[in-house]
Specification:
Elements: E1 4-5, H1 9-34, H2 67-95, H3 108-118, H4 133-157, H5 163-168, H6 172-200, H7 203-210, E2 212-213
Antiparallel strand pairs: 1-2
Amino acid sequence: MPPIKRHHGLVRLTHWLNAILLAGMIGSGLQIYLAFPHIGQKGKVFGVPNPLDMQTFPEWSRLGGWLAGGLNWHFALAWPFVICGAAYLLFLVVSGEWRSLVFRPRDTGPAIQMQLYYMRLRREAPPQGKHNALQKLAYTAILILATISVLSGFAIYKPVQLNWLVQLFGGYELTRYWHFIAVWLFVAFVIVHVLAVFLSDPASLRAIITGRYRGRHVSNE
């Protein structure tokens, strides 16, 4: 069967740009966190557990070298990240492709079946369209997570001007906690995302590079 067109050029461009920008933001974010690796007031235990309290991170994982350098990198990468994300969301709305990405209650059963397939507890992959139900769940969750990350980041950056946003997150320290946790959720998503691609459908990796898909599941609906 000939390959089908799977991903628009704008989707591929924003996908890879955001992957690079996100890696830089995580590295610079870790550099910023290292300046005060504790959530809450100094010497006091914060109400929400932080398993990485007062922990350091290897130099290779950090970007910026010191606090000011980390801040400069973080904010230099933040705006391109937001612009790329906004361009992607606008494309989804205009093209109508958001319909194939949004997780709905009816996708719960298929998502469970797909998870069983990934765990090798089901021999054949369940029927799917352009994205399977588990992918829809992941993509919907990551869009929500990205929104929380951006908003909490702006709240930390301008806590006085955006005090209403800080309060919406539960206060400055809790806002900082949400932003920090978002880093690790993004890292977890990337790891699971890459593993799922290589283990279940390597053709989808070529599709996000070339735009065309040739594999076992070729439905574009």
